[in-house]
Amino acid sequence: MNEKLKEKTKESLSSVFPITAIVLILSVTLVPMEVGTIALFLAGAALLVVGMGFFQLGAEMAMTPLGQGVGGRLIKCRNLAVIAVVSFLMGTIITISEPDLQVLANQVASIPNQILIWTVAVGVGIFLVVAVLRILFHVGLSNLLLLLYVLLFLLAFFAPFEFTAVAFDAGGVTTGPMTVPFIMALGVGLSSDRGDKEGADDSFGLVALCSIGPITMVLLLGIFYQ
Questions:
Q1: Distance separating the N- and C-terminal Cα atoms of the chain
Q2: Continuous H helices in the chain
Q3: pLDDT tens, position by position, 33-82
Q4: What's the 3-state SS for 133-192?
């Protein structure tokens, strides 16, 4: 446990240190700040490193086994309706708990937070179902991604300009610390129990497909939301 925590803390430090150094350099050269503000910033950076270390440790210990377990059980279930409903619910629920989504919702003042959060979460849930069905039916990832992104950019032409940037930022929600471990572990659980040579390859691509969901749903929200 201690070794794992040290490893995760080092990973957090390597992620936080560069941006901390850049901000400190800017605060000394281009945008001078008060000493108290710099001290608060450094204290926040230190707490962020520790907090991210514990968070990543918890995600690895809880979310990864959970995702693999759910994926392993789903692949043994022959009922497509059950697989689709469970995948949708898990994708939606795990996205709602994503910290990145809360930050994004607070920055879009023109849309109520809950509407944007649920729109993004439902988009992830729908496309997680698409990703799971792709694994079950052996659909090629590259062709599917090409088709979906063509449809996505066509949809972007009809959406209001103000929503385009928000929509593509919403796609980053699926790269957050809560969503990625679970979705990737779910893919591993689904493909590992399939028992064929392409199973390992099909475990990849779930995050790429799920990223399309929030973009699509926010663009649709921009078209239809008044």
A1: 51
A2: 2-28, 35-58, 64-76, 80-96, 99-107, 113-137, 141-158, 161-170, 179-192, 199-202, 206-224
A3: 788 888 898 899 899 888 888 888 877 777 777 777 777 777 777 788 88
A4: HHHHHCCCHHHHHHHHHHHHHHHHHHCCHHHHHHHHHHHHHHHCCCHHHHHHHHHHHHHH
Query: Which of 96, 100, 78 has the alpha carbon at shortest distance from 88?
Result: 96
Give residue-wise pLDDT tens across range 87-129: 899 889 888 888 778 888 888 777 888 888 899 999 999 999 9
What does the block give as tokens for 206? 């779930």
- Residue 73 φ/ψ region, left for φ over 0, alpha for ψ in the -120 to 50 degree band, beta for the rest: alpha
Report d(CA 94, CA 48) in Å as an integer. 22
3-state secondary structure of 129: helix
State pTM to two decimals. Answer: 0.78
Query: Six-digit token pair at 101?
Result: 């989504």
Type of residue numbered 196: D
